[in-house]
Amino acid sequence: MKEKRKREAIEVVERLPHVLVEDILQRLEIKPIVRFTCVSKQWNSTIKSRYFASRHLARVKSPNPDILLGGELVHESKPYPCLRTLGSHSGSLTDVNYIAKPSRRRLVVTGSCDGLVCIYDFKKVLYVFNPATRWCRFLPRAKIQKINCVRENLNCNSARAFLGFGKDTLTSNYKMVWLYNSFENLDGQTTCEVFDFATNTWRYVIGSRHRICDHDFKSHPVYTDGSLYWWTPQLNNKETKMICFDLHAEVFQRMEIPIDYVGPHRIIMCSLNNRLCVSAMKINGIQDMWSLKSDKVWEKTHSLDLSYTTFGEYSGVPLSLVAIFDKTRMLILWQSLEEKVLLLVEDTETQSGKHKVRSISPWFNKPSSWLVNLLIELVH
User: Fold this and answer.
1) Running DSSP on this structure, what letter comes out for residue 13?
2) Taking a C-beta distance cutoff of 8 angstroms, is the pair 86, 66 a contact?
3) In which domain of life is the source organism classified (predicted)?
4) Domain parsing of the chain, residue ranges
5) Average pLDDT for the chain
């Protein structure tokens, strides 16, 4: 009886127009979609096509996407690197995805692009990973990784520049960009490598004329809307600036930011709702947040008054905006060289975009042994 029902169900599905089947599949969550790749060769081919992936991604995008956390789960005193999903509504951790770690070195995870991340170290490891499907693709090492191996053997300092990952929005091609300062320490000179997924090779492009910050956790490039962004070092106490790399034209451009001079440890940038955001912590505990609009004009979106909290009084380290739930609740990331803490800001008094923060608390329902020490990034 069971086999008969199964055959009848298959016959019904086979009589449906494939366009209708594809439309139904696009409305499902990722886990059942992965299981349906085993139904037939046609379904498998459809689900794995780039067109289906882009259509499904467009359907499932949410104003409050889940958050991808990278860190280590400690079991029997052994740390295991992994990625976990944090539900933006429930505040609970789900979906453990252990990261392949071919070496003993600490791994770094890029920001996500269409749900994909790049996982790497500075010398040997490099691959693309999809936490939802557990698909991964190991990639050839960049020139800078090979150079770092040689310099390590010669007891020389290695380049610590971080990898950028994003998408050319005109061609929908993904690209990895490794921008690093020249070893000769020449003023205003960088080297840039771009990975071509079509040919599976790295190639050089003309680098930026301006050196980049590469010394701390704020040196990670930020991707948004077809471009990657880096901070440039402050020179002679002048304003902090950034450089932008257009992933389609593959050219660099220096950009002004709407923030007066502050110390480099008080300024930060992030991506929120596919827009670049920059903010700085003032000495009075107030942090202004600016967003870059599609016409490349900066817009002041939020102002956090943290003077009533220990973050405003003692830290001086800017908070990175991760998600906005409503007018009185937002998710922020506080990080230093030693640790990262995900916090819920609530019970704020709001007036014309200004938030007087009354309550800040850790956002995990069950933090237990979970240690966040690699990455926090929105899953778009």
Assistant:
1) H
2) yes
3) Eukaryota
4) 2-56, 107-256
5) 73
Instruction: Answer yes or no: are the C-beta atoms of 123 and 145 closer than 8 Å.
Output: yes
- Which tens digit of pLDDT belongs to each residue from 235-251? 665 667 899 999 999 99
- Cβ proximity of 178 and 163 under 8 Å: yes
Which residues lie across from 271 on neighbouring strands? 276
Label the pairing between strands 371-378 and 67-75.
antiparallel
Give the burial string for 106-124 (b: 16+ CB within 10 Å, else e). Answer: ebbbbbbbebbbbbbbbbe
Is residue 332 within 8 Å of residue 322, measured between CB atoms? yes
What pLDDT score does 243 carry? 93
The enclosing H or E element of 378 equals strand 371-378
- Residue 177, SS3 per DSSP: strand
Say if residues 232 and 243 touch (Cβ distance below 8 Å).
yes
3-state secondary structure of 128: strand
Find the DSSP H helices in the chain.
2-15, 18-26, 30-35, 41-47, 50-60, 143-153, 310
Q: Measure the CA–CA gap between 12 and 10, rounded to whole angstroms.
A: 5
pLDDT score of 378: 31
Helix, strand, coil: what percent of the chain each, to 5? Answer: 20, 40, 40
Beta bridge partners of 371: 72
Sign for the CA dihedral angle at 98, 102, 104, 108 comes to negative
2-14: pLDDT as tens digits: 666 656 556 656 6
**Higher local confidence (pLDDT), 136 or 216:** 136
Please provide the DSSP assignment of 36-75 as one string. Answer: GGGT-HHHHHHHTSHHHHHHHHHHH--SS--EEEEEEEEE
Identify residue 211 by its one-letter amino acid code: R
Give the Cα separation of 17 and 115 in Å (integer).
Answer: 29
AA letter at 377: E
Residue that is written with structure tokens 């890029």 in the block = 110
Q: Is the pLDDT of residue 172 over 90?
A: no
Query: Which DSSP symbol is given to 134?
Result: T
